[in-house]
């Protein structure tokens, strides 16, 4: 259960103010079908994070536990520091909007997640906990917790949540996970 809850918390905090959250805000403003946007986000995230967690578990199995511990620990700290940098506001490619709320959301959200902080966090969490199902469930739940309110509440939420404070909190969380991982005897924290 630690993998599940760590994945929810880590991904939810990392997602706040992220480019994919801004993409969700754009898609919600563009399409009236909010449920289709949320469904598209869910499918795109599930597919993306399933692949990411698979890669993380595979890496943990293919590399010695000591090397994984150092790679994961240092990577957590690097992701934490990366979170301090605000994302650039990028407008999605309008040619995909013709596929409707669901189709455009699945494609654009999946593509936006590639190389994103939350995708990398999912790889790291899966490598750390070696639990594909718990990390995928937790990371998808975390992303949905941070993104669904944006779809339905939009601008009101973005004005009330200070992005800088969220980035600093997420940085601290990932750096602490990195230090705990480096200080541990192995990659599991049980």
TrEMBL record:
Its main location: membrane. The keyword Transmembrane applies. Keywords: Membrane, Transmembrane, Transmembrane helix. One of its GO terms (molecular function) is metal ion transmembrane transporter activity. The chain crosses the membrane at residues 38-60, 67-84, 96-112, 132-153, 165-184. It is found in: Membrane. Pfam families: GDT1 (PF01169). InterPro entries: GDT1-like. GO terms for cellular component: membrane. The keyword Membrane applies. It is a multi-pass membrane protein. Belongs to the GDT1 family. This is GDT1 family protein. The lineage of its organism: Bacteria, Pseudomonadati, Pseudomonadota, Betaproteobacteria, Neisseriales.
